[in-house]
Each structure stands twice: as C-alpha cells, then as structure tokens.
C-alpha cells in the first residue's frame, strides 16, 4: 500500500447535525483545523497527518458550503450575509464533546478561530493562527474588496477564479505539485460557501478583542506571504497577551500546504512547552 493509500485508510468522515463534514485522523488530544477561504479540509490534510501520528486526534472541517459540507442555511432575510461560522465551530466542539480543543486556523480560518477563542475561552486549549489576519472589517476599503470577490467568483466561475488567484498563495519556489493542489482546491469552491465566508470576513475586525484573549497562542506566517503578510501576523502576535511568533521559511500564504512539516514542528514544540 502506498503512503497516500495508507493515509486515506486512516482517515474517516464525521458529519454534524448541521451537515458539516470533518476529516478525522488519529487518537489522542483533540485538534480542530479550520481552512482558509479558498480551501477545504484537504488544505489542512498534510498538517493533520503529521499531527495525528504524534498522538493527536485531528478534525479538519469542510466549512459550510465547502467540500462535502452542506450549504450554509440562510437567515431570516433569505441571505447568508450574517452567517455565524464561529457559532458553528462552537456547536461542533459541543456536539463532538471533545473540548477544550487545540484550535488551528489558517487565514480566514484563523479569524473564525480568534472569534471562537474570544467568545468561548473554555472550549479552546490553545490557539494557532497561521497566515491569518484581524479580518477585512478593519477598513471600509478592505471590506469592499472582500465583498467584490463574490461578484468575481460569480462572473468567472471557480476554475477561472482560482487560476487568476492561486499563484499569489504560494512562494516563488513552491513545487509544481503543491501549486496545482492549491489551485485545484480553490477551483472547487462553491458560491454559497464563499459568499458566506467573504461576508464574515468583511464584517469582522478582531483587533479590539485581541488583548482580551486568554488562550495560549502561537502565530505563524510564511516569509513569502503576500496576501495577509508578515506584518499583519506580527501585529496579531504583539496584540495577543503572551503570544509566540514563528516564521515559516520557503512558504507563502499557503504555508500549511507548502511546508506542513515545518508548521507541525513549530506547533508540536509550542504544545510541548504548554505541558511543561
């Protein structure tokens, strides 16, 4: 059996009452991984594979409207403009009865994770923010830019949308196989999921609440990240009490896909320090 086949054999699926699908690996302390706005559970798979072999049970979600998950349910106004992904994550932790969890969020997933850790600190054992941000609600211009992506996706279709954007997510030295995987993942995004995600980003600014975070936090960023950038990650680390900061060499915004081993090494060292 090949390494890929062995990995697949160790991976199971769990679906919540809301229809949120998670890839599950390993056994041990629970780790919940939240992908970025252009990804899916697959984007966190390589990192989860490493962590699951080190004594952790990993859960990689397909966010509502992504991958194998059901579309996000519209609100009373018939839209998903106020869809609360953080509430869904909190419900998942409760439904799985696995809290407190090590919560890992990359990019948009990190914004969700920050909101969860702020609103329900008892459910979060530690927080890892990879190539993340405060959200696009930090300014009117960024919020408008995020919302504009919805129209771009609708007009172009997912494959063309991905072809135009995916190259910025990886470092200049990224291997062709990883670059293709990043683009392929984005090419499968659904308008329903992306719309709810973009609206979440556009209305969110976690900046004012960062100083209130009590979860032990690690902030990681690829040195070649040109999407959210190193400076934004440094800002997060500086604003969160006691946060650690780490750079991932040879990686761009999609650091968890480009360098899963390096990302895992930082995380495992961080968790070891927490237990000492």
UniProtKB/TrEMBL annotation:
<dbReference type="InterPro" id="IPR029058">
    <property type="entry name" value="AB_hydrolase_fold"/>
</dbReference>
<dbReference type="GO" id="GO:0016787">
    <property type="term" value="F:hydrolase activity"/>
</dbReference>
<feature type="domain" description="AB hydrolase-1">
    <location>
        <begin position="30"/>
        <end position="259"/>
    </location>
</feature>
<dbReference type="InterPro" id="IPR000639">
    <property type="entry name" value="Epox_hydrolase-like"/>
</dbReference>
<dbReference type="InterPro" id="IPR000073">
    <property type="entry name" value="AB_hydrolase_1"/>
</dbReference>
<protein>
    <submittedName>
        <fullName>Alpha/beta hydrolase</fullName>
    </submittedName>
</protein>
<dbReference type="Pfam" id="PF00561">
    <property type="entry name" value="Abhydrolase_1"/>
</dbReference>
<keyword id="KW-0378">Hydrolase</keyword>
